[in-house]
């Protein structure tokens, strides 16, 4: 069975971001694809300290202790796809989600592109504005990792304020459902051709500001 790991960057386990993720998950599950949600936003994830240990050790781990990042990395590595979900804070993703993504994707890159050729998508919930910027921020992690990205029939942004209000955004709900359908299709297409995926080229060296 194929599997998608969904990352909920919201501090609210049952907030609007969780509802948006579930809309996509419903469509994936209809196609027999398992979805596991990892709650990130309610945990204390610190940012990358640019120590470079993950690149030196090559053990697929971040050396920072005290959170579940390394467990999440392995779950994403074993999954067929990833769905990133975040609320909008000051016209971008929230800080905890940024810290999680910076560290997880740096470890993945430094250890042979662990997330390469998976199917990746992002979805955003916002009260008023900043949704496009937040969506682009998350998409850049997916693009950098050489993931295959499904689209919907509009930007993957749902509007709402209080928990559950995004479900009243009829167009947003429809966009999320189309994203789920297209993600399922792409997952199946990639899975069918996984033996024919191209090998990677030598990767560009990634340097963090010291």
TrEMBL record:
Gene3D superfamilies, from UniProt? 3.40.50.360
* Name of the molecule in the record: Flavodoxin family protein
User: What domain of life is recorded for the organism?
Assistant: Bacteria
Keyword GTP-binding carried by entry: no
Q: Does the keyword Flavoprotein apply?
A: yes
Report domain NADPH-dependent FMN reductase-like positions: 2-159
What UniProt keywords apply to this chain's record, in alphabetical order? Flavoprotein, FMN
Species annotation: Carboxylicivirga linearis
